[in-house]
Amino acid sequence: MKGMARQKVHGGKLLCVKIEYEKSIDKIQILGDFFVYPEESLWAIEDGLIGVSINTGADEIARIVEDIAKAQNAEMIGITPAAIAQTILMAVTR
Amino acid sequence: MKWRVIGLETNTAYMNMGIDEAIAHSVRTGAEPATMRFYKWKPSAVSIGRFQSLGDEVNVERCRELGIDYVRRITGGGAVYHDSNGEITYSVIAKEAGMPSGIHDSYRLICGWVINGLAALGIESSFAPINDIVVGNRKISGNAQTRRDGILLQHGTVLYDLDVERMFGVLRISKEKISDKLIKSVEERVTCVRDYSGVSQDGLYEALLGGFTDGKDFYMGNLSKEELGQAFSFSKGTYGTDAWNFSR
């Protein structure tokens, strides 16, 4: 199945998630007008989310994103791990 | 810190992005000092942020019909329409060590140079975090920054004139984008120098030049031969390719 969700992060930037999934995430793109430094960290976050069950809760997805971001020394401006998690679940629901 | 200033010039979208990257290389190696440059885009072009989808943000068919180029930037941020005659873009490229370490602080500093330039024209503007400059609540300048291998690169645009129909004919703006702005339409969100001043575009450039260089040790310079060669190569090999521009 395919899903897409978009939201303006409170006090931040536009965040869009495009996702392909069955029981877990097969493919994901995190898109928008936000900033991530270094930019390549976002690809690591996308890669790290592949295989995550779609029944995973928002807190757990946010933790996975945060752990990858920390490992990459990434700084996010205009989005947060929690907002990414929330948008993923919105995309799955829709 | 010594600055090289490259005066207002006009290039294609691909070359403009290639030049920024070439300068970043030469500043990193120490071949050239910190550099600021001012430029325009010909043909007119849309640039999109590093993490945006070209198809989602830009009406590509319309661009092709109108002869408007499109290019993906290496910086994050949003889609911008760069009209050949309607705006001036700047880039600031310096070693991170010579700039504020915090992203927000460095945005504030460089946007302050734009604000000073506009003030010289009698236009009162202010920094609107994360990366905008506004007059009242209307955006007159958008800015985007990246940091890579010890180099800070920030580019931004100052709207001189506004062709709303053309701008929003090529940009696709989602309703979520303006959902928190308390405005009915994107047209209400933007403004331009011509709304407040009868200054010519050259006059705007002079004002920005003054705002950027005030109090700095600088000289007016040009791209080196090496930078020009690299810029051509980035322009052809990266920024002018579908592989790069449609990568998301």
What does this structure look like?
The complex is a heterodimer of chains A (94) and B (248). With 94 residues, chain A is α+β, with helices and mostly antiparallel strands. In chain A, 38% of the residues lie in helices and 31% in strands. Chain A has one domain (2-93): Enolase-like, domain 1 (2-Layer Sandwich), CATH 3.30.390.50. Chain A is built from three helices and five strands. The mean pLDDT of chain A is 96. Chain B has 248 residues and is α/β, with parallel strands linked by helices. Chain B contains eight helices and eleven strands. In chain B, the strands form two sheets. Chain B has an eight-stranded mixed sheet with strand order 7-8-9-10-6-2-1-11, with helices on both faces. Chain A binds chain B through residues 6-8, 10, 12-14, 16, 18, 29-39, 42, 75, 77-78, and chain B through 49-53, 56, 74-79, 103-104, 130-131, 144-148, 174, 176-177, 179-180, 248.
Counted beta strands of chain A: 5
Q: Quick one: how many beta strands of chain B?
A: 11
Tally of separate helices of chain A: 3
At CATH level 2, the architecture of chain A is: 2-Layer Sandwich
Oligomer: heterodimer
Structural class of chain A: alpha+beta
Strand content of chain A: 25-35%
Q: State mean pLDDT of chain A (0 to 100 scale).
A: 96
Q: What is the molecular shape of chain B?
A: globular
CATH superfamily of chain A: CO dehydrogenase flavoprotein, C-terminal domain
Most extensive chain interface and residues per partner: A-B, 24 and 27 residues
CATH arch. level architecture of chain B: 2-Layer Sandwich
Beta-sheet strand percentage of chain B?
25-35%
CATH topology of chain B: BirA Bifunctional Protein, domain 2
Strand order of the largest sheet of chain A: 1-2-3
The mean pLDDT of chain B is 94
Which CATH class of chain A? Alpha Beta
